[in-house]
Specification:
heterotrimer, A: about 625 residues, alpha/beta, Glutaredoxin, Rossmann fold, Ubiquitin-like (UB roll), 5 domains, five-stranded mixed β-sheet, C: about 160 residues, alpha+beta, 2 domains, four-stranded mixed β-sheet, about 10% strand
Amino acid sequence: MMRIRTREDLSDLAREGMQRLTVALPRLSVGMSSCGLAAGAGELFDVLQADVGSDARLVRTGCLGFCGAEPLVEVNLPEKGRVLYGPVSETLAVKLAAEVQAGRFAMENVLGSLDPLVGETRMVDHFPPLTEHPFYSRQVKRVSRNLGQIDPLSLEEYAARGGYAALFQVLEQMSPEEVIEEVKQSGLRGRGGAGFPTGLKWEITRQAADAPRYLIMNGDEGDPGAYMDRSLMEGDPHAIIEGMIIGAYAVGAETGILYVRAEYPLAIERLSGAMEQAREAGLLGGDILGAELRFNLHLVRGAGAFVSGEETAMINALENRIAEPDPRPPYPAERGLNGRPTCINNVETWANVPLIIREGTKAFRRYGSTGSKGTKLFCLVGDVARSGLVEVPLGASLNTIVNEIGGGARDGLQVKAVQTGGPSGGCIPTDRFDLPADYEHLQGAGSIMGSGGLVVLSEKTCMVDVARYFLDFTRHESCGKCTPCREGTEHLGDILDRVTSGKGSEKDLDRLVQLSEGIKRTSLCGLGQTAPNPVLTSIEHFRSEYEAHVHEGRCPAGVCTALLTYSIDPERCTGCGLCSKECPSEAITGLKKEAHVLDAGKCIKCGACREVCAFDAVRIQ
Amino acid sequence: MPEITMNGSTVEVVPDESVLDVARRQGVFIPTLCHHAGLGAYGACRLCLVEVESGFRPGLTASCALPALDGLVVDTDSPMVREGRKLVAELLLARAPNAPEIRSLASSLGVTGTDLSTKDETCILCGRCVRACKALGLEAVSFAFRGSKRKVMSPFDRTSETCIACQACVTVCPTGAVTSKITPDAVEMVEWHTRQELHRCPSCGKRFVTPRMQTRLHQMTPDDQHARTSLCPSCRRRDTAGDQTSAVLFK
Amino acid sequence: MSEAFVESEVKAIADRWVGMPGMITGALQEVQGRHGYLPEGVMADLATALDVPLSRLFSAATFFAFFRLVPKGESHIQVCMGTACHVLGAPRIRQKLDRDLGVGERGVTSDRAYSVEEVRCLGCCSLAPVVRINEQTYGRVRMKDLGRLIKRGRPGGGDDAHQNP
């Protein structure tokens, strides 16, 4: 890796990158973020490598977004353009490879065509543009523009897409104060969920005290159901690094820490690789771009504690204590790591910085709502037809995201609600789907935007069970320091356990509300202050489900196992015997070819029989 | 001079005071449990909550850790404060219903019982023992696990190699959860599974100090005083009184 | 493994981490990386080498879910309990694993062949439910796939299962 000292150096690098992106050879990009790998993309890559590796360039790229259709492969043919395929089986991969060798595009499982990465617009004739695919048509790819388009570990390709131009601009043309002002003007707010104005945080950090000061990237994305940050770390690590170098200049920090969850080994690998490349190129270390800027990054792995995403808890963990939070003030920006001013920002926040500098605040502010400017990554998961990583302007309605982009519920189900903000958030029922997805409106609805996880729930979801699930999570993750969170979440969980097993009462429901409100008001940190949100919102919007559990001993969604009875419909049962073979408690008996019988007394309601029955003969009430 | 408004009255404040400090100075009662003047603000028990009306994030905040910022307006006994304290008291009572200090604390806040499921703990995880041991530079005990499984223990719940049996933890514990058995021959720190023999005074032969405590005393005093600090308090006093040029060892 | 070897290995780990941010969790992660868990004796040596009280290492080892004080099984199975996975049947998968493998209270079978643990969100939510076996991640796992996945440690018949989003 050559050292980058001048704009010419960067242009040379970008030219190299453009050559890689402008294909003389066919280029096959396989989405190999963690989700792609879990779907089998690793094996696909090997198949493609074996079949067509000598005639094409194979690239391991980041998340292409439409995770529900993984594995995804993009085929880029010289002079012809790009086509995205998904899902790609090994059989289809073999076909793709054969067609590529013949200079053609295969016709199966086409999601859409794309413009070439560089060069003139050229549409691949017989395939509809990907931008018209319902999953993509309402999206705006800004902070995620490089995901799936470049090799995340190619500084050249990052440069070809405008990478590190913002850094040059900052160091050559702007003072630190001007950079801070630019970020303030943009209206960028913390993308981790709290939504604190980023420019203001930078200003406070710079003004709080002299150097040393620290920067931290909060990559402890712990909300179950959210992987926006993982996608950015895996798919565009240089964007984060560039953002932090700019931040280091603006704030006056020489040391930065990348704090990444231990559960994200690929993100750790890609960030480490990008750090090494940046170091070799002279973009990290001393005398960066000859501007007397010195900045070094250290990668620190989390160790499995959701609470370590809380700023003061993270600082305690970095200072070699357990990740328990401390009262604020002092705020980390004033007095944080080692007692020094410390600016902690979320991954997505850092990744937005080069964009803001490069394109200007006006371009950034073109998207978003009054109080929430810019775009946001959301992870649309759950009972949704089209799941994946999406980017929309802040303020896009839940209806747009869940129904237009997500296609509503999967497999003929009906959407019942969407959970935003993970365990710190709340559920929002469909009759409120006109709500804009931004900081103010989601908070006003009793939830929070959180980091961007959106879990779609259908009639197959029991809202009481969802609340119980989240409380299970929260009480397991509570650090245990303060009384209300430690004891309170335990009691909330116990009451919910009782309600879901049919042993609850109306008094329990009132207790849930009263305890929840008290825990919110008295807890030390954000974990305790938001832990009751799933309970409060589900009781507010779905009280009838709670009441069915306590008054009728019934779970309307058919989820709470203690309240279910399994039986076999004699009309449908063919006596194939598969269920009794699978049954772990020997509750099913019957002769071959005769209708089988289920003994409810022995049944442990594991659901194995229903899974194997090809005749839909297992009844659950 | 900076000032805050507490319960409607303006009070002048000095730098680095907490709202709790101001309240104590003014004779305004705020209950506390995990707070200890010598151990720094911890903010865990949540009993000392006050309601902020302006000058800071509105709502309840722990007064032990809230700096007395110029212009702050707080209420130490609003309905929200009382409800919050009652909840904390009830949760503590559910955890330690048989600890007399917790029962009387709860009762003083108007909480005499609870319908929540109860445990039978004595330790209420205020952290004073851990913080005291840390303040002495020993860190023989610490918090293990987390959430409702959080517990103070010596490493691996076994005999501590670091504990000097100084009794600081016993002294600061508000509920008597930390105990020791002191006999003429030995000190046993029950919860830390540590039993240490008491060594004899070289002068009168009385057993009075654990070897580790002795080592620590020696670390804290100049070499030429070690002979004196090996003596038991009575012999040491006699020794000091007889030596007209000796420095004062202990204030 | 001789004591001298362990001591020198611990010293090497400590030298790498002394003074670095996240020193304690970093060093403990390396120890666990080598031994599969955190042996008590090694922790005591590490405390000395890092010059921190043992109680701090013990606090970290018991606070952070990543650390184990008990060895893993030969096949270590992690069931993701993220929201999407929960909604799509992860608890049943966990129960089936516990049942079929006979996993004891500490999450390990008596012959140490298998250990099972729940993990919090691996971030592959569009492929729920997700199970990881010995660091290999599998998506869209059905109860009937489990036996096959565990025995071979590879996904079988994966292609057809992934056809429909």
